């Protein structure tokens, strides 16, 4: 009576669509449960899905080949596109600060890992596909594995007689080493360099206070008699002030607050609300007067402040100068928040869909502006599938462009990993392409990333599990783990030594670079709890995109150059 139920959940070498989906969903659901188990603040996280897939594959569970390939590749595309959309804005802005140095250190680590992989292939006589699998697993880099498998498939399509091993086996064997290797190195380096976390935190906070990108507001009382009777425009011009916005003005002896224009005259002991970065605001106040403790200027009786979301096409991809809100509505935009970044509202700033504007003015005018800008939270919550799938299509097209390089057996391609990632980075940087915009709410981005990596891990785990034990014995898996230690630890140790002794990097930032250089979210999660800080997240996001692209290219080049 219940034979149909038994058939659904029993191992099958020739599964149909329903049985394939059941195996896939079991791998993901059980994997999530296993990934939440913690041992001393360490958990496998989403990577547990792959190990559950290996277990299922080992015990005879299979997926239909066409479904497995689709799930694997589509999952990888979703994952890397979500990463690109999430870190794009901060990735490009980071190059104005420490981002260039962070990326040089991280990419140097990638290149060193590639060189060590080549020497292992050459000296230990490991097949290049297995060597690349060892490399990808030892540094926990999933897109690199995906790129290697795609390149091997391209070669097999052109040369049908060639047979290659599945790099997923080596990847799965060394993956735990990659996770644990970073964690051990973090703990070990903290001890060796005698890191004082309080001192490191204070040092980093002092540096942040000096950063020019932090937007603040400060009250200022005018005491410089040479400025009395002059307009704000004249004062800015004479003092050479550029990156400052005066959002509110209260005349001396009055309780009335208004949003001034550049033509507004300044009187003795007037109080201004000054907006800009810490350095510029402090410099401006030192020139015109002193910090004020006046409370009336913060009153919401005459002038109010309100956050408005850009959700209408009439405001998207227009500069603040083009909208001209001050002359049309007597309103002033002081700040723009984009993907968690605060930007000073300069006239040349172009607005993107999903931006949040901080507007100062009277209530009636703000209500009118809402009709132009949108301010519809519901629109942001609703998924825009045109933008999402349109972006994915562009990414796949870019990833499919053949790059012909002499002496290589097949053209080099960005593939399903690098193509969507690069596309997402630039879409998020420039706000979109035509009708395709970059905004995806945080919940949707996290869901897309987690769903994508779960699909990929489940597919590669189930496929590799079929021959995992036999290959572990055949290729001496413990020896592969030994080889993987070279790829895992040598670049990490050199990264730590150079970063601390040569560049004097803050330990919190260094830990983020270490996790980012190995694209390891499990190590990042451990480090944030171990250090009780979210600071590593910032440097992790700074290096992740370029590291991922570099690892994809290294994996492809090794396959193309040495696959026989």
Automatic annotation (TrEMBL):
Compartments where found: Cell membrane
What does the record give as the organism's lineage? Bacteria, Pseudomonadati, Bacteroidota, Flavobacteriia, Flavobacteriales
Is Phosphoprotein among the key words of this record? no
Looking at the UniProt entry, the stretches that span the membrane are 17-35, 42-61, 67-88, 100-124, 169-189, 385-405, 417-439, 451-469, 481-503, 510-531, 543-563
| Keyword entries, A-Z | Cell membrane, Membrane, Transmembrane, Transmembrane helix, Transport
In terms of Pfam families, this protein maps to: Asp-Al_Ex (PF06826), TrkA_C (PF02080)
Protein name as annotated: Transporter
PANTHER family given in the database record: K(+)_H(+) ANTIPORTER SUBUNIT KHTT, TRANSPORT PROTEIN YIDE-RELATED
Which Gene3D superfamilies would you find in this protein's record?
Answer: Regulator of K+ conductance, C-terminal domain
Q: Where is the RCK C-terminal domain?
A: 291-375
UniProt similarity note: Belongs to the AAE transporter (TC 2.A.81) family.
Name the InterPro entries on file: AAE_transporter (IPR050144), RCK_C (IPR006037), RCK_C_sf (IPR036721), YidE_YbjL (IPR006512)
**What is its membrane topology?**
Multi-pass membrane protein
Question: What's the chief localization of this chain?
Answer: membrane
Species assigned in the record:
Flavobacterium myungsuense
Coiled-coil features, chain-numbered ranges: none
